[in-house]
Inverse folding.
């Protein structure tokens, strides 16, 4: 890792983030397109949830993690407070790993 | 009086929720610092990276590529690909971050998956704006303190998988997304996106499967009708 690499990664990441914010401010977007942008964010976030639940380094992540996520999801569905959702998900996965489930 | 009491209560509840996630982020930050130190990244570089990049996945990927003998150019390119999703996120929540340019210039740096999900779960008004800034700044603080701590602790840091934090993030994001999934078109788009992302993971470079999830928008057929803001 070099300073040049870190600084270009930082600059690139920042520009990606800023350009979305600035582009949106410049263009007057019709309500339909706005809804589409909102659905796009939902699509990306759920894609991220699914990928980070089931996959690791291009393969299956093992069972401990998805089971923990499902426990957290059910808790959220049952309107359990958010803090507990996080603890239940992590706790379930940690417990499964403790007993030898990958 | 009463409405300001309620606002205060909302703010406290939102800050408490953001803090729960920030603690998990801090744990991952510790493991990042330890891993970077183990990979031989100099301490100032690790600290600068966490402060200036502030994107967990991209930082892990960049360090892993270099540690595996890849070139810094490949590391930067791969990590940036992972961050491309932040552009459409910015398009979607620009109105929440701030109206004037100083807010956007500062707010851009704390635009991450979690702050986006947090603010979207709080609608689109003043509460959403406070949720964005509160969660973003808390996560930034915990991530960087964690990374610095990890560098110091080095090999004494256990694998964060032992604590199950890798399950905490998807579960938290999902919990934040649930309200928006009450709408049928959002549900269709989301399920399609999830399936596409998982199905394409074995074949695509990191970052691309999540972007491919945008194809899930195809399930809406035509441009959707506007809905009332939540």
């Amino acid at each position: 890792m070099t300073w040049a690499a870190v600084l270009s990664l930082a600059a690139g990441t920042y520009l990606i983030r800023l350009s979305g914010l600035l582009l949106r401010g410049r263009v007057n977007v019709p309500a339909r397109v706005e809804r589409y942008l909102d659905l796009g964010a939902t699509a990306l976030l759920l894609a991220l949830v699914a990928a980070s639940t089931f996959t690791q380094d291009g393969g299956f992540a093992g069972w401990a993690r998805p089971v923990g996520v499902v426990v957290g999801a059910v808790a959220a569905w049952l309107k359990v407070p958010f803090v507990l959702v996080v603890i239940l998900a992590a706790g379930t996965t940690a417990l499964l790993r403790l007993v030898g489930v990958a | 009086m009463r409405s300001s009491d309620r606002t205060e209560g909302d703010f406290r509840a939102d800050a408490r929720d953001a803090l729960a996630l920030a603690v998990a982020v801090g744990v991952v930050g510790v493991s990042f610092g330890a891993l970077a130190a183990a990979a031989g990244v100099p301490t100032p570089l690790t600290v600068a990276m966490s402060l200036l990049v502030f994107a967990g996945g991209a930082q892990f990927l960049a360090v892993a590529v270099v540690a595996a003998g890849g070139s810094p150019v490949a590391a930067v390119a791969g990590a940036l690909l992972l961050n491309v999703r932040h552009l459409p996120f910015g398009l979607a929540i620009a109105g929440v971050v701030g109206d004037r340019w100083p807010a956007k210039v500062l707010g851009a740096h704390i635009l991450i998956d979690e702050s986006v999900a947090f603010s979207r779960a709080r609608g689109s008004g003043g509460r959403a704006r406070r949720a964005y800034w509160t969660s973003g700044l808390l996560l930034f603080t915990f991530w960087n303190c964690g990374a610095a701590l990890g560098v110091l602790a080095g090999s004494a840091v256990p694998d964060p998988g032992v604590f199950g934090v890798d399950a905490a993030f998807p579960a938290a994001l999902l919990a934040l997304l649930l309200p928006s999934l009450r709408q049928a078109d959002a549900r269709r788009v989301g399920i399609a996106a999830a399936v596409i992302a998982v199905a394409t993971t074995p074949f695509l470079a990191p970052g691309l499967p999540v972007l491919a999830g945008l194809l899930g928008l195809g399930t809406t057929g035509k441009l959707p009708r506007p809905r009332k803001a939540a």
Remarks:
- Chain B has a mean pLDDT of 92.
